[in-house]
Specification:
Layout lengths: L14 E5 L10 H13 L4 E4 L10 H13 L3 E6 L15 H6 L4 E3 L4 H9 L4 E3 L3 H5 L7 H12 L3 E4 L4 E2 L19 E2 L4 E3 L3 E10 H10 L6 H4 L3 E5 L7 H14 L1 H4 L2 E5 L12 H20 L7 E5 L10 E3 L2 E5 L4 E5 L1
Parallel strand pairs: 1-2, 1-3, 3-4, 4-5, 10-11, 11-12, 12-13
Antiparallel strand pairs: 5-14, 6-16, 7-8, 9-13, 10-15, 15-16
């Protein structure tokens, strides 16, 4: 397997950097950001330090990239958290100096558009954590999900392999950030139907992947992708965002992976539970179920055209729904299809 550095774990009282590599939404909704920062202090005992562009919408790419590098380079920062995602982080990567990040590796937390920074770090051999943005998981209205707190605590403070399980309930609905009173209101939750398995083989390897929409852009750009040799023997993880892409988008992306030869080399695939509700597309229960089923079917159908054996686990608790697992990108995942069990290494 591709070698990765071993990152030290944090202790309570440590300072952590907070940055906005994609969008400066904390500037539009400071009450949401403040709640997330307070949760870092109260729930995890960490002291957050924001960087200059964290609350600046439309900050220049060069300035955002400078914040990324300074956040990693500062020895007082023991981890780096993204405040939120966005849609242009791919364009930021050319402004990063890989030597700075390689010389000062740290745990990075974020998801969605932060897929691009995860991919950049992965290629440098630096593990990171897919999940745990300040304005979403940390600033969860009313209180953080216990499932999310436990997973984030594992990522921050403990080492070793743990078995993960499906959450009992979930939500993919959101409350309007424009109304500060919504921070005191609970989001509605529904029963979680659990994981969907296909294949009974066992597989293990380093995790690589991210948000489907971001990976489409990564594949189009190509220059930041790992080599086929580096991805050989890895475990792929995928999830989709609030844009609710149709199933054919996953089909096309996975077909591209297959034609590159990657799907023959992956040892297992983890697929996050699809987000099936958004303000722009407030689907009803039947529509949500149909959307999720179409996505699950597309993944299996496309993968099986290239690899008939590897285990595929869908509806896993990571990505744009809550609660949320922190996926240790670059670390080893073990998927026991024969027992229908999944283990992550933190």
């Amino acid at each position: 397997m591709k070698p990765f550095v071993t990152l030290p774990k944090l202790t309570r009282g440590d300072q952590v950097a907070v940055i906005s590599p994609s969008a400066g939404l904390p500037g539009l909704f400071p009450w949401v950001q403040e709640l997330g920062l307070q949760r870092l202090r109260d729930v995890f005992g960490l002291e957050p330090l924001e960087y200059p562009t964290t609350r600046r919408m439309g900050a220049p790419l060069e300035a955002r990239a400078q914040d990324v590098m300074q956040a990693f380079a500062d020895p007082d920062n023991k981890a780096v958290f993204a405040s939120i995602g966005g849609n242009d982080q791919l364009r930021l990567l050319k402004h990063l100096d890989p030597a700075v990040l390689r010389a000062h590796p740290k745990p990075f937390f974020g998801f969605s558009d932060n897929t691009h920074l995860h991919t950049f770090l992965w290629k440098l051999g630096i593990p990171s954590y897919y999940g745990g943005a300040v304005m979403t998981q940390l600033a969860m209205p009313q209180q953080m999900h216990a499932y999310t707190v436990q997973s984030l605590a594992h990522a921050l403070f403990t080492s070793g392999e743990i078995e993960i399980f499906a959450s009992a309930t979930y939500t993919d609905e959101v409350l309007d950030w424009a109304d500060p009173a919504n921070l005191d209101r609970a989001r509605p939750v529904v029963a979680n139907e659990g994981w969907y398995w296909d294949g009974t083989a066992d597989g293990a390897g380093r995790l690589w992947g991210g948000c489907v929409e971001s990976l489409v852009a990564q594949v189009a750009a190509a220059k930041y992708l790992p080599s086929a040799a580096a991805l050989e023997g890895c475990v792929l993880y995928l999830e989709t965002s609030e844009s609710l892409p149709p199933a054919w988008v996953l089909d096309y992306l996975l077909t591209g992976f297959g034609e590159r030869g990657w799907l023959r080399g992956f040892q297992a695939i983890l697929v996050g539970r699809p987000k099936a509700w958004d303000f722009a597309q407030p689907l009803g229960p039947a529509q949500q179920a149909a959307y999720c089923q179409q996505q699950r079917a597309a993944v299996v159908q496309t993968v099986r055209a290239y690899n008939p054996h590897i285990p595929i686990v869908r509806n896993v608790d990571f990505g744009h729904t809550d609660p949320q697992l922190m996926l240790p990108s670059g670390q080893v995942a073990r998927v026991a299809g024969s027992e229908r069990r999944v283990f992550l290494t933190y």
